[in-house]
Amino acid sequence: MRLTFLFLLLISVSSMAQRTKTVKIILDTDFGNDCDDAAALAILHQLAYNGEAEILATVYPMNDDLGAAAIDAENTYYGKPNIPVGTYKGTYEYKGKHNDFYNSKLAALPNDLQSGKNAPDAVALYRKILSTQPDRSVTIVVVGPQRLLADLLQSKGDSLSPLDGTALVKKKVVQLVSMGTEYPKGNEWNIRICPDAAQYVEEHWPTPVVYSGFEIGKAIMTGERLITETPENSPVRLAFETNPQVDAKKNRHSWDQTAVLYAVRGVRDYWTLGTGFPQIAEDGKNSWVVSKGNRHYLIAKKSTAEMKKILEDMMVAPPK
Ligand SMILES: [Ca+2]
Ligand SMILES: [Ca+2]
């Protein structure tokens, strides 16, 4: 009797392990200012090849016309030229310079968008995609400033959905993963250049939020294998070759890749989760308050060498 029970238990555990749930992702990325965005999108494509992720859309929060074309070029390189790309059409003045370290180079690779002028408004695209998805099914990963998310929450019901933005997010989104803040305190770029949006999102976002803090990606240097293991037209390689912030070995911190990896795979044995919430000041500085709730931060568990291998294997993997 006991043996039968054990046998059944083993069968059910092994079928649970085999069952892979495809995570529906919208990636919100400030492509161009740092090369980790290009690497994060590459990783997301590899996770999509595995069946671990489905890329519903990619959106660009900056007010220039290069980013959307560069994102479309990388999606095209990975064989997915029709993934929708939305771009910011507003006039917010970010509190930090957004550099074009590689967007013009990537925008020159094959892509049919060519310019943000040909891309839909990103908030409208968010509303359109969310309105067509099953309830509580979409994970949003933001690896840039949170302008679009704050605008989405404050959007009104329209022909795409009668729900206002906050109600639409509450109905359709299961989780927000944010590369932002620093634990236990800091002055992280994505928050600092658009602090009012980050404050609004932290206070009003109606689902659980997991922050992959500055310290998580900072510890993991990746990129050096791109030079020897990928072709010259790889958009990820181009981004790392062009970005002046890489180190002598062409490595850069893995801020955005870690957020994407968590969004798709969860904690695994990579991380554990702390619970609390970030207090975000008007100037974007943050400190974390440890308490109960539905805001979390990643805590590193696996060694940085092991994390580097996991991330870099996917950064250099070819298109399928
Ligand atoms: Ca396209
Ligand atoms: Ca970024």
Task: List the topology elements.
Elements: H1 2-18, E1 23-28, H2 36-49, E2 53-60, H3 66-77, E3 85-87, H4 103-107, H5 122-132, E4 138-142, H6 147-153, H7 165-172, E5 173-179, E6 185-186, H8 189-192, H9 195-204, E7 209-212, H10 214-218, E8 221-222, H11 224-229, H12 235-242, E9 252-253, H13 255-265, E10 271-280, E11 286-290, E12 295-300, H14 304-316
Parallel strand pairs: 1-2, 1-4, 2-3, 4-5, 5-7, 7-12
Antiparallel strand pairs: 6-11, 8-9, 10-11, 10-12
Bound molecules: calcium ion (2 copies).
Residues 72, 81-82, 111-113 line the site of one calcium ion (CA).
Strand arrangement within the widest β-sheet reads 3-2-1-4-5-7-12-10-11-6
- The overall strand count is 12
Per CATH, the superfamily is Ribonucleoside hydrolase-like
Taken together, the total number of domains comes to 1
Radius of gyration: 19 Å
DSSP helix count? 14
In this structure, how is the largest beta sheet organized?
10 strands, mixed
Strand coverage percent: 15-25%
CATH fold title: Inosine-uridine Nucleoside N-ribohydrolase, Chain A
Percent of residues in helical segments?
A: 40-55%
Give the end-to-end Cα distance, rounded to a whole number of Å: 48 Å
Given this structure, which CATH class is correct?
Answer: Alpha Beta
Q: What structural class do helix, strand and pairing data support?
A: alpha/beta
* SSE topology string: HEHEHEHHEHHEEHHEHEHHEHEEEH
- The CATH architecture name reads Alpha-Beta Complex
Instruction: List unreliable stretches of 5+ residues.
Output: 8-18
